Amino acid sequence: MSHAATESRPALLDRLREALPKIVLSPTVAIVAVFVYGFIAFTVYLSFTNSRILPSFDLVGWKNYELLFKIRAWDIAVSNLLVFGVLYIVICCALGLLLAILLDQRIRAEGFIRTIYLYPMALSFIVTGIAWKWFLDPGIGLEAVVQGWGFESFKFGWIKDRDMAIYTIVIAAVWQTSGFVMAMFLAGLRGIDSEMLKAAQIDGASTFALYRRIVIPQLRPAFMSAFVVLAHMAIKSYDLVIALTGGGPGTATEVPATFMYSYTFTRNQMGIGAASAVIMLMTIAAIIVPYLWSELREKKQ
Amino acid sequence: MSASSSAKSGINFGRYILYTLLALFCIYYLLPLYVMVVNSLKPLSEITSGGMMSLPQELTFAPWQNAWSKAQVGVEATGLRPYFINSIQMVVPAVALSTLLGALNGYVLTKWQFRGSTILFGLLLFGCFIPFQIVLIPMARMLGLMGLAGSVPGLIFVHLVYGIGFSTLYFRNYYAAFPTELVRAAQIDGAGFFTIFWRILLPSSGPIAVVCIIWQFTNIWNDFLFGASFSDFDSQPMTVALNNLVQSSTGVKEYNVHFAGAIMAALPTLLVYIVAGRYFVRGLMAGSVKG
Question: Is B165 on the interface with A (CB under 8 A)?
Answer without folding.
Answer: yes
